[in-house]
Amino acid sequence: MSRRDSHRILILGDSHGRHFNQLLRDKLTSNFNIQSFIKPNAGVAEVISAVEDKIGDFNEGDYVVVLAGANDIDGCYDSTGVSSILAAYGELLNKTTHTNAIVSTIPFRHDRTELNGLIENVNGWLYNMCQKHSHVATFTINNILHRRFYHHRGLHLNILGKKHVCAHLKGLAVQYVSEA
């Protein structure tokens, strides 16, 4: 299969994105070329910092998947912290206009449930921001995840949760290909 016949997917993520490359590859056909760039313990800005270098030759048949933000929420005690998260996502949206992007909302924190109200607010703002861009799909991750999909400590997804998320990402990938 020539490179022109394949669709490229780049997964950018913090530690939540570990193993998504292989799990998604196992669910998709061979006409998808999947790569990942994972930065454990990183915030959104750091996760997406290399996006331009990695997607320079992407086109409307390719897309970037972003899974990040849970690490940023820990330090969000005021509007400045929230603004920096949204600014980083805004930068991503502006750098991906030549291709497609799937932006995951920030997953709930079952280790620090007191942060979930803030996460819900930030996710609402993120969703509204993404809706203004025709090349972006928002993946509302908390609509499909439940506590059983997390490790016992409650921050990271377990393998069942990762497989569940990848099944939904597969649906979005196939949808993009059929619309292209």
UniProtKB/TrEMBL annotation:
Gene3D superfamilies, per the entry: SGNH hydrolase
InterPro entries for the chain: SGNH_hydro_sf
Record-given protein name: SGNH hydrolase-type esterase domain-containing protein
Naturally occurring in which organism (per UniProt): Popillia japonica (Japanese beetle)
